[in-house]
């Protein structure tokens, strides 16, 4: 037994007994609280959320939730009912958002974790900055409802303002096809970027273009405010081959010859009257189309102004496939045009009626090559040259 000393002290006239127990042994502890079994209590999970509560942050900032002394069971980040996608690490101690946030919005973050000491839940809110400059897609070509396009058709995307951070914006652009092929974007200028596959699109399929721009930083103070989705219908493989030397045009559909047309090409007395060789795409059509000689005034030699029927444009330098009843005598025999592909009215109307934007017209036999940026002459560049215009390709090449 432990010895007990009893002391009696008078306090306010009352005798108080103080009992002092002298322990027989001591473990030297600092007095840490213990559970009934004598073990320290297990710590509850500690959850940390970034951005911090009440802060205002850039829309392209990541949301990061971490847990110490346990693992995350659930993380929800939302604004206006829209859930932000994210992913856990393997140990489920960290969750990171996978997409940009919407500018000028309030986000609520809820996180639950569980550890040996039990569960823990934390809720927080933060705001995203409102952009000084709004960025969105102003136009996608092709984008006509119900339109079927050819296998050479590029996807041309125009933004509402010049893009500074092209790599960030390009990373937000996605192209998915039912029959996938490799492709790449090329920036033509600060507002226009064009997608072209390595080879012609496989025929008869749907291609989906998506611009996930919301929250993407396009430059100082500039953020995407709207996403865009477009579905493109690729039709049959209409590929025409024009041989200027033999004065013929062979039109194939999915590899089958549909029509052989006698034609007359540019007379080649000057460069501008020389038909360009190379891979052209059909761009637009008109019936009739008024054609005026370039860089010439009335009274000048070779000046002309005339209306032509069933005209299908194949470049921006004035080249069309069109009806030419005045030169039927030359079709199949001689080249007498100002650079266009002249055809018999019946043949020209048939070609016009079967036209799709993005159909392929290959021209051979002249010493003037189609420039890659003349109309839709994008197929004049090899794929390796084409993709050098991609901001992501240039960034990867600079790191190599």
Describe it.
There is one protein chain. This protein has 3 domains: 46-128, Immunoglobulin-like; 133-235, Immunoglobulin-like; 238-369, Beta Barrel (L,D-transpeptidase catalytic domain-like). Helix content is 7%, strand content 42%. The protein has helices spanning 166-171, 345-353, 383-387, 391-399, and strands at residues 4-11, 14-21, 46-50, 56-57, 64-68, 71-79, 82-83, 86-88, 94-97, 106-115, 118-128, 133-135, 137-141, 148-149, 155-159, 173-177, 183-187, 192-197, 205-211, 217-219, 222-224, 228-234, 238-243, 248-253, 256-264, 278-281, 284-286, 289-292, 305-308, 311-313, 320-323, 341-343, 360-364. Strand 1 and strand 2 (14-21) form a beta hairpin. The longest helix is centred in the C-terminal third of the chain and has 9 residues, at 345-353. The chain is elongated, with a radius of gyration of 37 Å. The chain starts with a strand and ends with a helix. Residues 1-34 have low confidence and may be disordered. Residues 26-54 are annotated as: Disordered.
Measured as a percent range, the helix fraction is: under 10%
Largest sheet: number of strands, sense, barrel closure: 9 strands, mixed
In what order do the strands lie side by side in the largest sheet?
26-33-23-24-25-32-31-30-27
Q: Tally of extended strands? A: 33
The dominant shape is: elongated
Intertermini distance: 81 Å
Under CATH, the homologous superfamily of the largest domain reads L,D-transpeptidase catalytic domain-like
Structural class: mainly beta
Mean pLDDT: 90
Number of domains: 3
CATH level 1 name of the largest domain: Mainly Beta
Assign the CATH topology of the largest domain.
Answer: L,D-transpeptidase catalytic domain-like
Q: Which CATH architecture of the largest domain is right?
A: Beta Barrel
Which consecutive residue ranges, at least 5 long each, have pLDDT under 50?
Answer: 1-34
Count of helical stretches: 4
Rg over alpha carbons? 37 Å
Give the assembly state of these chains: single chain
